User: What shape does this take?
Amino acid sequence: MRRLTVDKVEPGMVLGKSIYTDNYDILMNRGTPLTIDYITRLKARGHTTVYVTDAETADIIITNPLSDKIRAMTTKDIQKMYRTTQLNLAKAENDTSSALIKSINSPKFKKSFQQNPVLTHLCENANRFLEDIMNQNVLSGLNATKSFDNYTYEHSVDATVISVLIAKRLSFGQDKLKQLVTGEFLHDIGQLCIDEKIANKPGKLAPEEYEKIKLHTVYGYEILKDVDKIEGVAAHISFQHHERQDGMGYPRGLRGSNKIDMGSLTGELRFTTSDKLVILAEIAAIADFYDACISDRPYRTGLSPDLVYELVKTGGGWQFNNELVDCFLSVVPKYPVGYGIKVKCGEYKDFIGVVATLNTSKLSAPKILLLNDNQKNKIKPIEVDLYSYRGLIDIECIN
Ligand SMILES: [Fe+2]
Ligand SMILES: [Fe+2]
Assistant: This one.
């Protein structure tokens, strides 16, 4: 299987991962041979990339961290939470932030949120989500292919998956993992309070619009705090996931210590008071950034995973908790399985291929399968193991 941009998909290729409708029913099952009509429909729905299987890549296996069933169930619940919360939110077009916070904290809204059966279901699902992911130690391939309409929900699930993989490296107990999962599922729910014209604006935001977007963290916290099913520390994931170690993040400019306080992980999680960075939010900050950057949006295609990997790496110390960045680099591969690559130097310079398997002892040096030569001609596939290759070779991800 491999990931291809929709414009490179040819009729006859077989769909590698199922595609869902906006309501998370199956639209096209994995295994479906793609026709011109199907490819046109995928484009119309805003998919820019899909996973396909063809003869050359039939042996490449992308291990999904989540089963299709749990993924679809969780994404659907998150979508329902957003929709029902939006309905209950008494929001007027020109509401000030204080008016919005007041209506979030009204007994009527809090009660409807607290008693929402979807919230109960979502919190129960957190256990099944964790069970599903427990056998995974690294992210093999990429996140879900997102369509324009379901970005927020898919992003919430994908960011949670990455966060759990990081947290597992730190030997978090089950209760801490559950707090991480429930908080991260809804980390962007405060976006509901942002004017849609600003939230969905393609292109660059004006400074005053950006100031409004930043408030989704505050609204999210106000929505999630004091809710029985969501622990206080989980509400802080929403509040703090855009804070930075150097104090230049938002909404409050909190500073981090760049250290993981391991001693406290056995007891109460470090810093559950409101003015210190919570380790769960520091983890979420990395996962959120990575997934948001690599995802396609209506106004841009996703950045290459190898580039974003480097951005996270160099963000350690000022943007992200340095010690957590080390954990991230040990669970997320620089070159995800199934992604297209181009050789940058050496005897195979300008050959094109795909990432075939990861080397668990060195995630940044996978096995690759070269499929085209430097003139773009198809060749008999050549497998190169970057871990044991003795010559000069360097690769980059391509779309
Ligand atoms: Fe956010
Ligand atoms: Fe986010």
The two ends are 15 Å apart (CA to CA).
